[in-house]
Every structure is written in structure tokens, then in C-alpha cells.
Amino acid sequence: QMPGTARHDREMAIQAKRSLSKTTDPVERLRLQCLARGSAGIKGLSRVFRIMDDDNSRTLDFKEFVKGLNDYAMMIDKEEAQEIFRIFDKDGSGTIDFDEFLVTLRPPMSNARKEIIMQAFRKLDKTGDGVITIEDLRGVYNAKHHPKYQNGDWTEDQVFRAFLDNFDSPYDKDGKVTTEEFMNYYAGVSASIDTDVYFIIMMKNAWKL
Predict the structure, then answer these.
(1) Mean pLDDT score, 34-47
(2) Does the fold of domain 111-207 match that of domain 3-105?
(3) Which residues, other chains included, contact 43 with Cβ-Cβ below 8 Å and sequence gap of 6+?
(4) Helix, strand, coil share of the chain (percent; to 5)
(5) Is 15 exposed, middle or buried, given 0-12, 13-18 or 19+ CB atoms closer than 10 A?
(6) First-residue to last-residue Cα distance in the chain
(7) Which residues is 181 bridged to in the sheet?
(8) Residue range 108-126, pLDDT digits in tens
(9) Higher pLDDT, 123 or 15
């Protein structure tokens, strides 16, 4: 089965919902609302913003920002949204760069955690092109142990695709996983794990590193 993800995902979502009632920091509140949807929650928000970015400027003004939050059903009032926007609009230009926004929104991780995540990514990215695809997985991940493959429901490719979809946004699955997507996903998982040591052991076991 998949590296401990589903269970950690549930734990993290539950933990995020709990913490939501305690925190007053607006950025933390937004982060927790995303994480309450699971590890791909932050990525889901980024997809909403990307769809709205009609002119491909990779920036959002306040109106687009609020619309994106509403489209993603985030519970945030206008004052709170303004406060968050101000935090991200560092130069006061009236627009925010959404790559910067996502990096700030991602739960902070130690370098030790980032390094082990990258090790796992490099192991999966057989071709070394910075994107994990079904082709990459054929050499690394054995689909034959998957229960749905064993009972004939799924082909090998379907097992691989389901695996990749774990890391992908629920609304726009393209069967490719970039470094950023992999990092975002594990930043979510990481948020539910207190110590670096435990996180590293979990990753090493999961990916046989």
C-alpha cells in the first residue's frame, strides 16, 4: 500500500480542524483551513488561483484573491482577507505573487525534512527530469502488491495513476507530479508529525531510502 499517506492525511486533517479554533493568526487560519482538506489542500487552492489568473501574470489583485478564496469555499471575512493580502503584498503594489504566497502558506519544514523528501523524489524520478510520471514508477514501485491489482479490478497503469493522483490536486489531475507538488504534499503530512526523527524514519521506511 501507499507510504502511510492516507492515515497521516486523516490525522493531519483532524489536527488542523482542532487547531483552527485556537489560532488567531490569519495566515495560520488560512493554512489550517487548507490542511483540514488533507495534504493536497494547499495545492488545491493554488490551482484555483492559477485558473483565475487569466492573463498568466502569476499575480493576483485583491478582488481575484477574495474570489479565489470564495471559490475554494474558505471561511474568511473581508477584514481577514485584507489582512492576509497585506502580509503577502510586501511591496504594497496591490498585487501578490502567488508562488510566493504558496511557499509562505506551506507549513514550515526543517531542512532535514526537506532533504529526505527530495531523496524520495529523486528515487521516484527515474528519468531525472524533475517530474514523476507513470513511466518513472514502473521501475520503482511494484503494483503487483496492490489489492486492486491482485483482484483484477485495476491494471498496473491504473495503480500507478492512483498513486500519482495522491499528490495531485483533486480538480486537475494530470498524472504528473512536480517537485513542488511533492513538497507541498509532504509539507501537509509533515504538519501532523512532531519530530524530525519520526518524520525521517517514516519516509525512509515508506520509500526504502
Answers:
(1) 80
(2) yes
(3) 168, 169, 181, 184, 185
(4) 60, 5, 35
(5) middle
(6) 17
(7) none
(8) 899 999 999 999 999 999 8
(9) 123
Q: Domain map of the chain by residue range? A: 3-105, 111-207
Q: What is the pLDDT of residue 81?
A: 92
Angle between helices 62-71 and 78-88 (to 10 degrees): 120
DSSP labels for 29-63?
HHHHHHHTT-TTHHHHHHHHHHHH-TT--SEEEHH
Three-state DSSP class for 167? helix
pLDDT of residue 22: 87
CATH 1.10.238.10 fits 111-207, yes or no: yes
CATH of domain 3-105: 1.10.238.10
Q: Are 167 and 176 in contact (CB under 8 A)?
A: no
d(CA 14, CA 7): 11
Identify the band that residue 172 occupies on the pLDDT scale cut at 50, 70 and 90: low
Interval 81-93 mean pLDDT: 88
